[in-house]
Amino acid sequence: AQTVTQSQPEMSVQEAETVTLSCTYDTSESDYYLFWYKQPPSRQMILVIRQEAYKQQNATENRFSVNFQKAAKSFSLKISDSQLGDAAMYFCAYKGAQKLVFGQGTRLTINP
Amino acid sequence: DSGVTQTPKHLITATGQRVTLRCSPRSGDLSVYWYQQSLDQGLQFLIQYYNGEERAKGNILERFSAQQFPDLHSELNLSSLELGDSALYFCASSVGDRGNPANSPLHFGNGTRLTVT
Lengths: 112, 117
Hints:
The complex is a heterodimer of chains A (112) and B (117). Chain A is mainly β and 112 residues long. Chain A contains no helices and twelve strands. In chain A, strand 8 and strand 9 form a beta hairpin. By secondary structure, chain B is an all-beta fold. Classes of the chains: A mainly beta (112), B mainly beta (117).
């Protein structure tokens, strides 16, 4: 079974600084996708960024980028120029042939 | 707006009761997923349907059941409710292309908050 591990229950960063959230996963599948979802206090699940496993190039979406290390099964999220609105729970997720499996989440606090 | 609609937004009921949560997927999406999120916890996968058929099952209790109808909307039925069933229940949908099932991100509804008293 696939598992996703986020080893940082909580992280904090100063506004305008850069922060990196860690995620590792375990799978025997060759075709899969990785995602980062954001859950603000409203509890809505918002897709932040996704990475295709077959692509070596790291995905980027504005201030959000990933560091995908396939051999190490690592998928970290970097947030640049942190903003107060980035404060949320961040979930790393793995999707293979079927279901989406989530990590336990990292609560990110932005300090003004 | 993700395009996934969940009703009701909030539900308060007593132990032992039965409730039905409803989900309308995004237009064109064939797969529907149900997740449970307890307070300050991650999302636990319950069940997935694809075009009316059950495709994957997670840690769904026997007291819980779901179905996907011909119009692709889905319902999650929770019976004999216990205090521990209080949670946020999310529905998500994806295109769910059988040829490349991984190539379809999930889009989440805003959830139904269930409180069992």
